[in-house]
Amino acid sequence: MTTSEPRARLWWLVLLAAAGAFALTMGTRQTMGFFLSPLNTATGLGVGSISLAFAFGQLWWGLTQPFAGAFADRVGAGRVLVIGVLLVAAGTFLTPYMTTTLGLIFALGILAAGGAGMAGPSVLMAAASRHIAPERRGMATGVVNAGGSFGQFVMAPIAAGLTASLGWVGALQALAFITLLALPAAWVLRG
Known about the structure:
- By secondary structure, the chain is mainly α.
- The chain has one domain: MFS general substrate transporter like domains (Growth Hormone, Chain: A, Up-down Bundle).
- Helices cover 83% and strands 0% of the residues.
- The relative contact order is 0.22.
- The model has no long low-confidence stretch (mean pLDDT 92).
């Protein structure tokens, strides 16, 4: 058995890991808008200040990805994915405790969005492509990208259900722990 045979047989596991990690990190990140009203009520910061934190997060998510990809090339996608998932979880968990605009920018805009950039498509698609035969790479990138969309679709009702049962603070903390379910993907995608 050559070294490429196990890789060829486990391509579906690589796709599941990459798409699942993207679903969890992107899905959690995209539910943050659901908490705009409770954040506004609890902090009194106003929609403008909270929206600034979200806007900074969008910018930071995009800026983080090329650097995360370069870092993954040096130290491996698995390590970058672990850091990214932990940052998303930390930022999500800390968000209810932030009572200032700068605090929200730190939790939502730097930690959660930066982590989502590190555990985002640039790292996940590249890692999946390294482990998948060339003839399946086009399909692989589509499946990984679809994982992010699926996460957005699934995590919104989960966030709503968690909010109804745990309150908004408990829901954010539960989402932080749910995000940690993406950590095993780092082992599969290591390289």
